[in-house]
Design goal:
The chain is an alpha/beta fold. Helices cover 50% and strands 13% of the residues. Strand 5 and strand 6 form a beta hairpin. Helix 5 runs antiparallel to helix 6, helix 8 packs antiparallel against helix 9 and helix 11 runs antiparallel to helix 13. The radius of gyration is 19 Å and the shape is globular.
């Protein structure tokens, strides 16, 4: 059996039957309209209050266009409703894509897509929703057992596609507690590492994101058992998600979830404040 046949990661919406042409056409339309307006990707990102990386990823087909992006881009690029006209079809395509996630991941993917709040504690690598494309590619390239090039690119695309939840409106609430050692690990080499730190600084400035660093000097760490995520889907109770060595588990028992929530609250009190955390990242970015 080939790597592709064994692969169980969720597919990117632009790869799904019936939607590939939709997303491909939209990314090309955005690029053509942006170029005609004389705007760079950075200019468009600034006008839309999105990052340059997001605009670039959409135009390259790495991330699917989202309704909110199309709505803002239509006005900024003076598209006269061309992009807004596709919003209904895009919403249907994205909803269909979530249904195609594999069984082991589907519950979490659905909860993440509908989340009004998400809290993430990371101990090994930068959280997936905050990773740059090159950082994610480096992680999958060095995965063991080795993955094929096809699977690497698919997993990178999947990860980038999931990051659209950061740009939803109304904006969900996100908080992150990241171990300092994670920030110091030069995944992918110096250039990739520095760009990843810059990405964290950008995300850390978002109004709906709280980013904190757990310093190596912490003497009373309340959780040394591994990473976890707390999710609150719209209209539903909070759940917890853990994944160890490829074995995922979505926890819905409210007593277990409460324990994770208590741990997270204590960790936030032990971690550096958000301003101190961003200052530390800036210091690491300036280090030779």
């Amino acid at each position: 059996m080939s790597d592709a046949a064994r692969e169980r990661r969720p597919e990117l919406p632009i790869e799904l039957d019936g939607t590939a042409f939709l997303f491909n056409t939209l990314r090309l339309q955005v690029k053509i309209l942006r170029t005609a307006s004389g705007m760079s990707q950075k200019d468009l990102g600034k006008a839309l209050s999105f990052s340059e990386d997001l605009v670039s990823s959409i135009e390259r087909g790495v991330r699917p266009t989202q309704p909110d992006f199309l709505n803002r881009a239509d006005d900024a690029l003076k598209a006269g409703g061309l992009l807004k006209a596709a919003i209904d079809d895009v919403e249907k395509a994205l909803a269909h894509a979530r249904k195609r996630h594999p069984d082991w991941f589907r519950d979490f993917a659905n909860a993440e897509a509908q989340a009004v709040a998400m809290h993430d504690y990371s101990v090994q690598a930068i959280p997936g929703l905050l990773q740059t494309e090159d950082y994610a590619r480096s992680l999958f390239t060095h995965w063991r057992p080795l993955l094929s090039e096809e699977i690497i690119e698919k997993r990178v695309a999947d990860r980038m596609a999931r990051q659209v939840v950061l740009d939803k409106w109304p904006a969900p609430t996100f908080s992150y507690v990241i171990e300092e050692a994670v920030l110091r690990r030069p995944v992918g080499g110096r250039s990739v590492h520095r760009n990843q730190l810059r990405r964290l600084l950008d995300v850390g400035q978002m109004r709906n994101v709280e980013l904190q660093v757990m310093p190596d000097s912490c003497e009373d760490h309340p959780c040394l058992e591994g990473a976890f995520i707390l999710l609150t889907p719209k209209g539903r109770r909070q759940v917890a998600y853990i994944e160890t060595q490829g074995y995922p588990k979505l926890i819905t028992d409210q007593e277990e979830v409460r324990i994770f929530s208590d741990r997270y609250g204590i960790m936030r009190s032990r971690a550096l404040r958000t301003d101190e955390s961003l200052s530390l990242i800036e210091t690491l970015l300036g280090a030779p």
